[in-house]
Specification:
One of its GO terms (cellular component) is BORC complex. This is BLOC-1-related complex subunit 6 C-terminal helix domain-containing protein. InterPro entries: BORCS6, BORCS6_C. With 178 residues, the protein is mainly α. 69% of the residues lie in helices and 9% in strands. It is built from 4 helices and 3 strands. It has a 3-stranded antiparallel sheet with strand order 1-3-2, with no helix packed on it. The longest helix has 100 residues.
Length: 178
């Protein structure tokens, strides 16, 4: 069973008791939910789409009047043709205006896209230049660190000689105290 929900909200909002009183007998296809004043009321109707389709198919189709002659159809009223021509001119004018506005909008959008691409290209170029400079600085720093390490090796040799000299001085002081 297919059920569709139809939401009807009014300021008073009928209670479920009000709905049951106003419902005709045998209308079990409608139920209500809600029921407090001011709250929206929901009506659930079973097969709503099918009922609408049935109602549309049962309506009588309008028929052409038999009093319209072939001469009237072959020679329409000139005033109608003038009205149609005026309406078509207004429509053509509106279409032209819409196309002009669309063209202007598209040109504006294209200009914005070009500016965005130029900004993007500038940002990428600047970022590449900065990255290249940082890489050069890093290699320069590595070279300086290697040079410093080479000089520190000389310092460690000198430190060993200083330790030996200190031992000799301590031995000499020890001999003088005795």
């Amino acid at each position: 069973i297919q059920m569709e929900s139809l939401l009807i909200s009014d300021e008073a909002g009928p209670s479920s008791a009000d709905f049951e009183e106003s419902a005709p007998s045998g209308s079990s296809s409608m139920t209500t939910s809600g029921g407090t004043r001011g709250a929206p009321t929901t009506y659930v109707v079973e097969g709503l789409e099918q009922k609408i389709r049935y109602d549309e198919s049962s309506r009588p189709r309008p028929r052409l009047r038999s009093s319209v002659s072939v001469d009237q159809l072959a020679h329409p009223d000139p005033k109608i043709l003038d009205d149609l021509e005026a309406a078509s001119r207004r429509i053509a004018s509106n279409v032209d205006q819409v196309v002009r506005e669309l063209r202007g909008s598209l040109h504006g959008m294209s200009d914005l896209v070009v500016e965005a691409c130029q900004c993007y290209q500038s940002a990428i170029g600047s970022a590449c230049d900065h990255a290249d400079q940082h890489i050069r600085n890093t290699y320069s720093m590595i070279a300086k660190v290697e040079e410093l390490n080479g000089q520190l090796e000389k310092v460690s040799g000198t430190a060993g000689k200083i330790k030996e000299m200190r031992k000799i001085v301590e031995q000499f002081e020890g001999m003088l105290k005795d």
